[in-house]
Amino acid sequence: MNRKAVCMMMLGLLLAACTPEKNEPPPLPEPVEAVLHVPEKVDAGEEVTVSTTITEDGEPVDNPDEVKYEIWKDGHKENSEMLDAVSKGNGVYTVSKTFNEEAVYYVQVHVTARGLHTMPKSAFSVGNAVTPAQPDKEAQ
Q1: Over the range 9-38, which residues count as b (16 or more CB within 10 Å of their CB) and which as e?
Q2: Does residue 68 contact residue 83 with C-beta atoms inside 8 Å?
Q3: Bridge partner residues of 35 (DSSP)
Q4: Buried b (16+ CB within 10 A) or exposed e, 72-83
Q5: Distance, CA of 30 to CA of 32 (rounded, Å)
Q6: How would you class 94 by CB atoms within 10 Å of its CB: exposed for 0-12, middle for 13-18, buried for 19 or more?
Q7: I need a labelling partner for 128 at 20 to 30 A (CA). Which of 4, 80, 103, 116 fits?
Q8: What is the SS3 string spanning the chain?
Q9: What is the model's pTM?
Q10: CA of 123: how far to CAs of 22, 28, 65, 137, 139, in Å?
């Protein structure tokens, strides 16, 4: 090989070593977090306000694609009710509902934001109903 060809190969290898890798995947987005706030117990006939604080990387999310609350009585998920959330600003979303029947109820918020979906769930009791210790085990 002549000297010019060797220099061209060395230059090519040097440039290839200095070029950033183009096959690296883009960094993953920070997960969207939704913290559901539900009272432990309320009286029958009392209006209940449930709220959710939505953040990403510690910052409030004020422009989610969707925030809905699914509510059902213990043992009756097939009869669940979907309610649209109301934005209160600063990443906080609420819904209010009156529960007239003593029972355990489940609330699951469905949050879609920035291409991600999260669905935290919690239980509370109305009247003298007893909320299960582990609400995720009984969702029907």
Answers
A1: eeeeeeeeeeeeeeeeeeeeeeebbbebeb
A2: yes
A3: 53
A4: bbbeeeeeeeee
A5: 7
A6: middle
A7: 80
A8: CCHHHHHHHHHHHHHHHHCCCCCCCCCCCCCEEEEEECCCEECCCCEEEEEEEEEECCEECCCCCEEEEEEEECCCHHHCEEEECEEEECCEEEEEEECCCCEEEEEEEEEEECCEEECCEEEEEECCCCCCCCHHHCCC
A9: 0.74
A10: 48, 32, 25, 11, 9
List, for residues 17-63, the tens digit of each pLDDT value.
555 566 778 777 778 999 999 999 999 999 999 999 999 999 999 99
- Side chain identity at 28, as an amino acid letter? L
Instruction: For residues 61 and 89, give the distance between their C-alpha atoms in angstroms, rounded to a whole number.
Output: 9
| Rounded Cα–Cα distance for residues 73 and 99 (Å) | 10
Q: Hey, what's the torsion of the CAs at 101, 52, 123, 73, to 10 degrees?
A: 40
Structure tokens at 83: 């309610």
Task: Find where tokens 């819904």 sit.
Answer: 95
User: What would the mean pLDDT of 103-116 be, rounded to a whole number?
Assistant: 94
| Six token digits for residue 21 | 């890798």
